[in-house]
């Protein structure tokens, strides 16, 4: 036993060295450090973009970005939903390492006023670049927490994670912000409140009858009155819950102050563009890092009048085309300010499109092309394969395509390297510097293995077998699609990660993505001679990976992911939270 423990210790050290930061194959390009502009869509399917095969949604600006830069065809999110994926993007680490996952089915942060969020001990690329002299800004969606113990301690706030400037939503755009037919929280809360009010009303009626007929001697008119009050309060809350959610979660902040509560969603897009333009113009002497985190194309698909009805794909297509126009406006700002050649631009999505975003006969989620599954599915490719485009004129070759596995986590070491910084040495960083691969001086990605989590549960892993040119995918667990024969979990917001609606595979499912990117044909020992070797190799990699994990508090579990009234940001006296501090400038 001692020998076995000793062997595991050496294996863990070796894997930590492999998974930890590596020196770049090449130094930073000569000349001034670049400005860095990171553009992230919300819930965009890889199949919704022209340069990734869509011929009916018009995305000329994103397509131009790809034509002028490098397009990654196997770019992967570290998680299939917003909060953990964005945590991994900012830190270069699997979200399980920072605790930005749940083990209880709470896939993302549920409210603004929760105590969970990206721990202050985590190091984001914004922190490193700020220390290296960059001016750093975030415009748009955050969804990584706000406060810990009081409504203004802002322990999880973007400004506490390296950003000098923040304008946007501390939470996330959601259908409840517009009281849509689709609902993330309102419909469930209304139903629960109505059921409770009906039960209390029944109890009140029973007590009243019992009092009048003397069948319930213990009944008193005081008890009847109080139960009636409780019933009326439950009914009133049920009627007001939609408005309460709008005020609690759908608001804009400028740095530490609330700018607009609740936000007027139809006016938010031009406000975001104005903030981007203002930030670029103020900091054009550089260097700057600007992370533009779009509210598009998450439901409720708020789209201005100029773009409504323009696409062939309803409101979702309209919203996608409007986001592409926004990308064009941002790139035009760089052109106008003479910053195009000195700015690295990156475009991606936080995960795949939502297949379950349906209401009536209408589809309000994205298309993931040939890839199986979608948002919320930790293993299937449609939930995690995303656009990945880099442009830096004169440094990165235009029109280049890379068919190697890469990750959103790779942005962390790449931008840190370009800024002349050092990747942290005191923790495992899972991302890999992409510069050599983007420039063409490296043939292969540094990722041999990538793990695919659903919450805290490992659903799949991939192995890039470079000598054979194969990319193997092993599925240990997959969600049970509903109804039978469907390609998603219809009737639910997203597919579950655990429980009786998940199938565990022994032996695991095996696919060769290099030949079967749609994951349509599971391989067997009869159809693939390498089956056992591949499965055993991946199993050893998974075991070694697990040796590098350390226990941390899970920020998305119920204890830290339940609404706490004392954490609720409010620009008035709660619950009367209303203000528009940007009205004059608007």
CATH fold group of the largest domain = Alkaline Phosphatase, subunit A
Poorly predicted runs of 5 or more residues: 1-25
| Strand fraction | 15-25%
First-to-last CA distance:
70 Å
What is the count of structural domains? 2
Task: State the CATH class of the largest domain.
Answer: Alpha Beta
Order of helices and strands: HEHEHHHEEHHEEHEHEEEHEEHHEEEEHE
CATH architecture call of the largest domain? 3-Layer(aba) Sandwich
Structural class per helix/strand content? alpha/beta
Quick one: how many beta strands? 17
Cα-atom radius of gyration = 25 Å
Name the overall outline. Answer: globular
Signal peptide: 1-26
Pfam family, one: Sulfatase
Protein name: Arylsulfatase L
GO molecular function: arylsulfatase activity; metal ion binding
